[in-house]
Every structure is written in structure tokens, then in C-alpha cells.
Write a structure and sequence with these properties.
Blueprint (H helix, E strand, L loop, with lengths): L14 H27 L2 H56 L9 H34 L7 H20 L16 H26 L11 H35 L5 H24 L8 H27 L14 H12 L1 E7 L2 E6 L10 E2 L2 E2 H10 L5 H12 L8 E5 L9 E6 L4 E6 L5 H23 L8 H9 L13 H14 L3 E6 L1 H13 L2 E5 L8 H4 L3 H7 E6 L13 E5 L6 H5 L1 H12 L11 H7 L11
Parallel strand pairs: 7-8, 8-9, 9-10, 10-11
Antiparallel strand pairs: 1-2, 3-4, 5-6, 6-7
Helix pairs in contact: 1-5, 2-3, 2-12, 6-7, 8-12, 10-19, 15-17, 19-20
Length: 645
């Protein structure tokens, strides 16, 4: 009673005692299973059966392992590609913060340039580390040999080992489960403690056998002891070498004090120090330290320079050869005979098809859905003429182009309201008001110089690189769009970046929108078209872009939403034009025919004007018959079959 128990009865059995007995029983069963397996393998039939079972299991696990390796390799490849694109974009952003022409107009240009140059080595150090580690992860993922992912595999092994054996690893808490024992039961208590001690020893011994079983693929027996022995050996060798060098230097110093240093000994000491340095270098290379400025990163820098030169050269070519503002129409004549001839030329009934036995006649030219779009009386063709007129280098050239295109029509009372500040604004634009329809149009000039080409590169360099690589290695669609948008936004360094080139234009558009309300349309060609679309989405204003790049991957960079692009933007996209293929177009996209053979020809404003005239006609009855560009375009063979693509 009260803590005493009879010697013939069993001692009290608490929860921890039951747990201990269960572990001992499991260890005994495991040991018996090993002995039984050894007896089976002692026979030829048993070994043959074991080999067949091993071969079947090996084939199954090999397929599963290959599948896992493919998935992990593809994941590591995506990681490398993301870091590659991020590195490209980040380095180019720092370059633009210093050398972009529009950045020099900023009040803090000098401070920004100095800060960017100071941060450049730090950025290179950071990029080199993450790039080397990512490339190493990708290479290791492709390696099928065991231990190819030491750090990753070790961490995974620790987690799996804990999940497998967490119950065996738990230390029993016996303090709360021991029954009280009085002085009269000391002899029985000693026997109980000896029994517990004996059983605990067996438990630890057999649990050790359980946790270090040879068939556990995640364990490496004696690895810690081998590592410690190797480290002790290396430390002893280094210490002996250091003592030898110190003794040699001490002897040389003593001989030097008395002027008895032989030349051969001095040379020998230098060679010994050089040899020690080489050994140390080789030893360091054997270590798996984080690599900084390794071979992969040096190749990346070389590739960055080459790709940048290619993109700069192509942008410079586009910016140099794109022209506009020189499109001339003939003298205005709205006589019935001339209008009739023009309509027959452009919209003659020259083709027919048979459907269900009935003949349907139609125009030989295309009739686009955008032809019927009207912005309170302004057609898409009117806006295309204005997008071309803004290419004039001076105010007089722009006004002359407007007179040639609108005087004599019902819109001849137009008023030239404003244009950009030619000395400070990097983006050229003009504002025109049409009292007859109470509409204001802001036309934005596109790429017309090397400076404009640099601005193109600034906004769309990152997505251009991603799309160019995606042609050969399709990975862009494997990444979430929201992730790519955030990656290209470069919010990480937005604080040190200069104000965008379109800042003054955006401020003017906001003021105009507040003044005229919904009676505003923004239009432009090429870069100007993308800027017009961006400002239209930002200010919730109707915008028409002619051959402008897309915006859906650049939403974060311009701080706009895909919904606003969808609701307010119309893009005219000639086939074979490569500029609208940059990024991804949103909103209403009207693809139009291009009869010219080259992408540069399809990108020009004259292609838009002539194709829209031949397809939509001109309700304002302008005289197009004398325009040489449209005459030449009309005589080109179509050669634009949608079925070919």
C-alpha cells in the first residue's frame, strides 16, 4: 500500500514504460527480420529471388527518380532564366539612369549618376553570387550521380529522417511517472532501477541499430568521424608546414643578421612560399565556397555586352530610318466627277463569291471593323493623318501638314493649341482643337532619332530580351503574368531612376483632360503610339496607337491596369510589322494588311495611311490621286494571304 508492492507482482507500468516496451519489441522484431533475411540470402534461391525483386524495384524507382529530376531540372531552369532576365534588366536600368539623354534634364542628375556608379560594384557582387548559385543548382539538377545536390539533399535527408523516426528520437520523460517508494522498499526499488537501466541500455543499443540501418538511403555511416579525421589530418599538415616555414624564416633572419645568407637558400625560401601559396589555392578550390565572379557570370557579362550592342544597333537603325510628316495630298477638289472616280478606284465592285447558289459581290479591298469607329466625328484615318503630321521637326512643318490634310474639309477650322517645349521636353507632341466637332487631339511623335531609340530600349529592353530568348527556349508562358509584370517593373530601384521622358506630356494630358472632359483623343505612331496608349489608360481617355508596342507586360513599369488598357486603347497593327510584337497588345487590336515586303516598310506611317484609305475610303473627299506613295502602294501585289500564317 502507498508505494509498496509485492516482489511477486509486476511493477507499476506508466505510459513511458509502455512506450519503452513497445520500442524494445519493435527493435526485437526488426532484429529477427534481419536474421530471417540473412538466412534466406544464404541460399541460391533466396539470392536469385532477392535480385529479381531488387531489379523490379530499381526500374520503378529509376523512372520515378528521372521524372522528379526532370521536374526539378525544369524548375531550376526557370529560376536561372528569371535571374538572367532580372540581371539584364537591372544592369540596363543602371546604365539608362546615367546615360539616358532625357535623364540629363533632371535636377538631381549628378547625384543620381554618382549614386548609381557607387552602387554598381555592389550590384555586380550581388548578381554574381545569385547567378553562380542558380547556375550551379541547374547543373547539379542535371547530374544523376548521388550527392550531386549535397546541401539540398542533406537538408531533405534530415527532414525525412525526422519524419520517419520522430517517435524513436523522443526522449522518455520518466520523472513524472515514477511511483513513490518508501524506505522499506529500497531493495525492491534498486532491483527495479537495475531492470530499467538494463532495458534502457538494450533500448538505446537496438534503437541505434534501427536508426543506422544500412538500407536507409539517407544515412551515411561514419561520415562525421571521417570528416573529423580528415580535418585533423589537414590541420596537422598545415601546422607542420607553417612550423617549417617559420623555422626556415627564423634561420634566414638569424643568418641575415650576421651577413651569411646564401643566395640559394633565399631563392629556396621564395619557392617554398610560392609552393605553399599554390597548395592553399588548390585547397580552397576544392572547397564548395559561394562563387563570386565565376565562369558563368563572366560569360553572362560577355553575353550582356553583345546582346546590348545588337539591340542598340537595331533600335538605332529603326530610329534613323523611320520618317514621317512628308505625306502630301493633292489640292482639295470635292467635285462629283473626281469623287466618283476616286470611289471607283478604291472601292470598285471587282470580286464576287457564290454562296448557296447565289452570287455575292464585294470590294476587292479589305473593309476593317475599325473603319466604322468614330470619336465624335473623327475617324481612324483622321487620327492617322495627325499621327504622321506630328513628325514635323518644327511648328511650321506641323501646321503646313495640318493645312494640307484638313483645309477644305468640314474640319478646316482646326486650331493649333500647343506643343512640347523644344528645349527641355524629350517627347515631341502637339495639341489640336477641332471646333466643328468639339474634339481635342493630342498627337505624340514616335521614334525618329537615336535618342528616341534609346527611350524605346529603356521602356521595353527587359521584355524584348525575354521574348527573344523565348523564341528558342519557350519559358515565358510558364511564368505567371503577374510575376513577370512585377519583375519588369523595377520598383527595387525606382527611387534612383530619373523621371520618365513622358512626364511633361502626362501632366499636360491630365490638365487637358480636366479642361475638356471626354472630348479628348490621344494618338501616336510607334513609340508615340505606346505612350499615347499608356497615357490614355492612365487618364481613362480614348487612345489610338499605330504600330505601337504592347503594354500588358509593362503594366507595372507604367503603373497602369490591364482593365484600363482594355477599355480605352485601340491599336492598328500591320501584318509583318515587328514593333507591335514587342510586349503584348491589349485592348482592341485591328490587324491590317501590309503589301510591302519588309517589316520596316510595314512599320511606316505611309503604310497605315494608304492601307486605311484603300480599305476604309475617305468620307472627307480629300484628293489622294496625286500622292506618289499611295500610287506605288496600290500597284504592289497583295501577297498577304492569311492562310499562309
Amino acid at each position: 500500500m502507498g508505494g509498496q508492492y509485492d516482489a511477486n507482482t509486476s511493477p507499476p507500468r506508466g505510459p513511458n514504460v509502455l512506450l519503452r516496451d513497445a520500442a524494445v519489441g519493435y527493435s526485437n522484431r526488426l532484429k529477427s527480420a534481419y536474421k530471417q533475411k540473412d538466412r534466406v540470402l544464404a541460399t541460391a534461391e533466396g539470392r536469385e529471388e532477392e535480385l529479381h525483386a531488387y531489379q523490379n524495384a530499381h526500374g520503378t524507382w529509376r523512372f520515378y527518380r528521372t521524372l522528379c529530376q526532370v521536374r526539378f531540372g525544369y524548375l531550376s531552369f526557370l529560376v536561372v532564366m528569371v535571374l538572367l532576365m532580372f540581371s539584364f534588366t537591372l544592369l540596363m536600368e543602371i546604365f539608362f539612369a546615367i546615360f539616358l539623354p532625357s535623364a540629363k534634364y533632371d535636377d538631381y542628375y549628378t547625384v543620381r549618376a554618382v549614386v548609381s556608379l557607387i552602387l554598381l560594384p555592389i550590384v555586380l557582387f550581388f548578381l554574381s553570387y545569385i547567378f553562380e548559385e542558380a547556375s550551379r543548382l541547374f547543373v547539379d539538377a542535371l547530374n544523376k550521380s548521388d550527392g550531386s545536390l549535397p546541401n539540398f539533399r542533406l537538408a531533405l535527408a534530415v527532414v525525412i529522417h525526422y519524419l520517419r523516426h520522430r517517435t524513436e528520437l523522443a526522449e522518455p520523460e520518466e520523472s513524472g511517472d515514477q511511483a513513490p517508494v518508501d524506505d522499506n522498499a529500497n531493495e525492491g526499488g534498486d532491483e527495479l532501477r537495475r531492470t530499467r537501466s538494463s532495458r534502457t541500455g538494450i533500448l538505446h543499443q537496438r534503437t541505434s541499430l534501427l536508426l543506422t540501418a544500412k538500407n536507409d538511403p539517407f544515412l551515411d555511416d561514419d561520415k562525421d568521424e571521417e570528416d573529423e579525421a580528415w580535418e585533423r589530418k589537414e590541420a596537422a599538415a598545415e601546422q607542420a608546414q607553417a612550423q617549417a616555414i617559420e623555422a626556415t624564416e627564423t634561420r634566414s633572419a638569424r643568418l641575415s643578421a650576421v651577413g651569411e645568407v646564401p643566395q640559394k637558400k633565399t631563392a629556396l625560401n621564395r619557392w617554398m612560399r610560392a609552393k605553399a601559396a599554390v597548395k592553399t589555392t588548390l585547397l580552397i578550390k576544392k572547397k564548395r565556397f559561394p562563387q563570386i565572379f565565376g565562369r558563368a557570370f563572366r560569360k553572362f557579362i560577355s553575353g550582356f555586352v553583345v546582346v546590348s550592342l545588337i539591340f542598340f544597333s537595331s533600335s538605332f537603325i529603326i530610329g534613323t530610318f523611320v520618317t514621317g510628316g512628308s505625306f502630301k495630298l493633292g489640292p482639295f477638289d470635292n467635285s462629283t466627277e473626281l469623287v466618283s472616280n476616286e470611289l471607283k478606284t478604291t472601292h470598285g465592285l471587282s470580286a464576287s463569291i457564290t454562296v448557296n447558289g447565289k452570287i455575292i459581290s464585294f470590294d476587292d479591298t479589305s473593309e476593317y471593323a475599325a473603319c466604322s469607329v468614330s470619336y465624335d466625328g473623327l475617324s481612324v484615318l483622321d487620327l492617322a493623318l495627325m499621327a504622321d503630321a506630328v513628325y514635323g521637326t518644327t511648328t511650321k512643318i506641323q501646321k503646313d501638314a495640318m493645312e494640307n490634310r484638313f483645309n477644305g474639309t468640314e474640319l478646316e477650322d482646326w486650331k493649333y493649341v500647343a506643343r512640347n517645349n523644344e528645349s527641355t521636353d524629350g517627347q515631341n507632341w502637339m495639341e489640336v482643337y477641332f471646333p466643328a466637332v468639339n474634339m481635342t487631339v493630342i498627337a505624340v511623335r514616335g521614334t525618329a532619332s537615336a535618342t528616341d531609340a534609346l527611350e524605346d530600349m529603356h521602356f521595353w529592353f527587359g521584355i524584348c530580351i525575354m521574348q527573344a530568348i523565348n523564341v528558342f527556349v519557350p519559358f515565358l508562358k510558364q511564368l505567371p503574368r503577374a510575376f513577370v509584370v512585377r519583375l519588369l517593373s523595377m520598383n527595387l530601384i525606382s527611387a534612383i531612376m530619373p523621371s520618365p521622358v513622358f512626364t511633361d506630356l502626362l501632366n499636360h494630358a491630365v490638365d487637358t483632360r480636366a479642361r475638356v472632359g471626354d472630348n479628348l483623343v490621344i494618338t501616336g505612331h510607334s513609340l508615340g503610339g505606346a505612350i499615347a496608349a499608356m497615357i490614355g489608360a492612365k487618364t481613362k481617355t480614348s487612345a489610338v496607337s499605330f504600330s505601337g508596342p504592347g503594354l500588358l507586360y509593362s503594366l507595372g513599369r507604367f503603373d497602369i491596369s490591364a482593365q484600363d488598357v482594355r477599355d480605352y486603347v485601340l491599336t492598328m497593327k500591320p501584318r509583318k510589322d515587328i514593333v507591335p510584337r514587342v510586349d503584348e497588345l491589349g485592348g482592341l487590336v485591328q490587324e491590317i494588311r501590309c503589301k510591302r515586303p519588309s517589316p520596316m516598310g510595314c512599320h511606316s506611317t505611309s503604310t497605315h495611311l494608304c492601307e486605311l484609305y484603300f480599305s476604309c475610303g475617305d468620307p472627307r473627299q480629300r484628293n489622294w490621286s496625286t500622292n506618289e506613295k499611295c500610287i506605288e502602294y496600290g500597284n504592289l501585289p497583295s501577297g498577304d494571304d492569311d492562310d499562309d500564317e
